[in-house]
Amino acid sequence: MFNRKQAPTTDASDIPSVEEISPRLAEIATLRTALGQESASLRQEEFILAQEDGPELVDGAREARVAAILGLAPKTVTAPRSQRRQQIATRLRDIEEAGDILAREVTTERNRATAVIKDRLMPEYKRQIRGLLDALIAAHTAQVEIRNFASQVEDAGYNTGWLDAHPCRWLDIGPNSNIGRFVDEKRKAGFIADRDIPGELK
After folding, report:
1. CB neighbours of 176 closer than 8 A, spacing ≥ 6?
2. How far apart are CA 199 and CA 202, in angstroms?
3. Which of 40, 22, 44 is nearest to 32 (CA)?
4. Rounded Cα–Cα distance for residues 42 and 45 (Å)
5. Lowest CB count within 10 Å: 72, 76, 130, 182, which one?
6. How far is it, in rounded angstroms, from Cα 182 to Cα 172?
7. DSSP, residue by residue, 104-123
8. CB burial class (10 A; 0-12, 13-18, 19+) of residue 113?
9. Along the 202 residues of the chain, how does pLDDT read in single tens digits?
């Protein structure tokens, strides 16, 4: 049971990033960063507009027309503060909605990538869980042997106080022990065959 041939291990560096499995996630991240920066800039502008005093700007289009009549360089037409604030509010709502759509797309893409990597890495995960199970079963077997040994000494009529340091008092034994329940859960999940579980844990 404990001399299984070791399968090749998967190093952490062999695990691709989620963006390698789903390049779209990298594209979404770039887009979300840009939208976040734009949103922050708009909110800053919105704050500045809210702090400004004085009347609304005069009709910029009229000023441009008058300048043209006079042969002067036309002034840049600037939207009144109320109009600009409305534009900002609309844009911020659009960005927020776009962000919600991107967030849902991220969830979908991550789930797809997870399904791919699960199929690829499950054999290695099973190997590692089996290694843990073998170690726990070995620890349980050793504990059973120690307890049986102590019982034999006691049955022979000797004091067993000198054996108190050897058993792990926190390590219970049997199918209802922590190890027993864990092994049974993994057996049901298909990580270990029933034939590989010692009778003391069934």
Report:
1. none
2. 5
3. 40
4. 5
5. 76
6. 12
7. HHHHHHHHHHHHHHHHHHHH
8. buried
9. 334 444 455 565 689 999 999 999 999 999 999 999 999 999 998 888 777 655 555 556 667 777 777 777 765 555 677 788 899 999 999 999 999 999 999 999 999 999 999 999 999 999 999 999 999 999 999 998 988 898 999 999 998 888 876 667 678 889 999 999 999 999 999 999 999 999 999 9
| Side chain identity at residue 7, one-letter code | A
Identify the pLDDT of residue 135: 96
Using the structure block, give the residue that is written with the tokens 């409305």. 86
DSSP string, the chain: ---PPPPPP--GGGS--HHHH-HHHHHHHHHHHHHHHHHHHHHHHHHHHHH--SSPPP-HHHHHHHHHHTTPPPPPP---HHHHHHHHHHHHHHHHHHHHHHHHHHHHHHHHHHHHHHHHHHHHHHHHHHHHHHHHHHHHHHHHHHHHHHHHHHHTT---GGGTTSS-TT---STTSHHHHHHHHHHHTTSS-GGGS-GGG-
